[in-house]
Amino acid sequence: xxxxxxxxxxxxxxxxxxxxxxxxxxxxxxxxxxxxxxxxxxxxxxxxxxxxxxxxxxxxxxxxxxxxxxxxxxxxxxxxxxxxxxxxxxxxxxxxxxxxxxxxxxxxxxxxxxxxxxxxxxxxxxxxxxxxxxxxxxxxxxxxxxxxxxxxxxxxxxxxxxxxxxxxxxxxxxxxxxxxxxxxxxxxxxxxxxxxxxxxxxxxxxxxxxxxxxxxxxxxxxxxxxxxxxxxxxxxxxxxxxxxxxxxxxxxxxxxxxxxxxxxxxxxxxxxxxxxxxxxxxxxxxxxxxxxxxxxxxxxxxxxxxxxxxxxxxxxxxxxxxxxxxxxxxxxxxxxxxxxxxxxxxxxxxxxxxxxxxxxxxxxxxxxx
Length: 369
Description:
19% of the residues lie in helices and 31% in strands. α2 crosses α7. The longest helix is centred in the middle third of the chain and has 14 residues, at 200-213. The chain is an alpha+beta fold and 369 residues long. It starts with 10 loop residues before the first helix and ends in a 16-residue tail after the last strand. The chain is globular and about 60 Å long. The chain has a six-stranded mixed sheet with strand order 10-11-12-9-3-13, sandwiched between helices. Strands 14-17-16-15-18-19 form a six-stranded antiparallel beta barrel.
């Protein structure tokens, strides 16, 4: 494992499940457990799974100038984000190229939280608050436990009054097993799910109790790597695997929807709009014949010419399909385009497929009640 500088308090629990805690974003994360990850995937799609995603960075921002900082740093119109609401946003450089994505939470009139992965979000915001009436605190004590799947709400409803009324991309403070938490209707799976933000000293109790009390519902501990299987089906791109910053545009990544309509006051906005129609590739889906997952980097051909590369692949034991995300030339990024995959382990016929593969109308993640 690479040298890590961040630690999840659940490390011993992950090791007990067979994890070697491989590095992500400076933290040893349970990419795999001793059990088959395909079982975790099935659990989250049909019941629920609990994941430790504390490797995400949590930044608290406070002060009267924070809204202006976030308005300039992110693609969302933060004036539309009220306390209790959150939004998925991107950050660009001056050239209009992607450098990070994040979720922006408004927790009060002048208080916010930004949660991001391994891109340049931390450095960007740390620089932006200098000289402003604003402060930034990196909170590595705050742990993030993600309970995802159709039965997640059934479990939480037994302990958190009003959780059924919590809308998609909204959050609330609550008591869970007698401990204070921030409960967010978000996740990275395409399912109805919740992220449970809690203090490090409470993370063990929350983790153990969810798994113990939820066992009868089929809730299981799911490895961090299961997110790769889920995100392929649900078209959730991941830095740096699907993205190649700082050279990709939101138009190429399919993330242009993160720009609030009419917004022009964010960093890189002018170049972002100029780059529309100048895409070099498009993130697109690929269906591969057979029952083996494509590998990252597998080349894709059409008419004996390379037209793309797989960024991540998976095989679903539920749908019996081998699916992948890929960076495809525009000419090949058309549903049904015949392709050939020429990987080391997977070779044969494939075809381009629109995204997402699973729940294209997003009915599951946006379910009410």
